[in-house]
Amino acid sequence: MLDVLFPPRCVNCRQSLAYQSRFLCAECFDSITLNTAFVCPRCGARRIAWNDRCHPAVPYLLAPATHFSEPIPSLIHHFKYQRLGQLRLLLSALIIVHLKQLGEQFSSYAVVPMPLHPAKERLRGFNQSRELARIVADYFSLPLVEPLVRVKNTASQTQCPDAAARHHNVAGAFRCRDNVKGKNILLVDDITTSGATLSEAVATFKNSSAGRIIAAVVAKA
Asked: For residue 3, is pLDDT > 70?
């Protein structure tokens, strides 16, 4: 009855689908290309392991599952703003498959979702990063912890005109409320653009003496 009343369509190209549970047509799904390596947050170079860092002073490695090109923007938009919560399964699956290709042993890591400010989370109704992080943690049998809190209700990064403005916008936005000394962290978020938010979160962890930090995201714009 739902299929008759609300004909299912691809969230990207609007092509008709056979079932409500399929959010992408075959063509759009096949267009998603997964990355096979880490990425240096500073220069964007491919890195194959933690010790293979071209900029050792950068205290984390980036693990973007794919690129921010369609259908990924449509999927993330519908997940965050159209309340298609079931998309968390597809988006988290992209992160999981990507992480499995990297060859890193994650058994010593704790999964941490990127926090939202409480006011923004109340407005949205959920934290999309927590939804993704919970599935990633369950799949790898890792603890899901939330030592990082957002203490500054910043403007949306999309409103900032350039990278410098984005870094200024999130300066001092986080606080680490728990002991993370020596702990390895798998920080999960949906998307990164300039890397300003991730860098600020990582700096907060490093100021609390955290160990290795890998930032896993669905896509890098």
From this structure: no
Buried b (16+ CB within 10 A) or exposed e, 140-169: eebebbebbbbeeebeebeebeeeeebbeb
The structure tokens listed for 191 are 């998307």
| Residue showing tokens 């209700």 | 153
* DSSP per-residue letters across 94-143: HHHHHHHHS----TTEEEEEPPPPHHHHHHHSS-HHHHHHHHHHHHHT--
Structural domain boundaries of the chain? 1-31, 32-220
Q: What is the pLDDT of residues 77-115, one digit of tens each?
A: 999 998 889 999 999 999 999 999 998 999 999 999 999
Q: Report the topology of domain 32-220.
A: Rossmann fold (3.40.50)
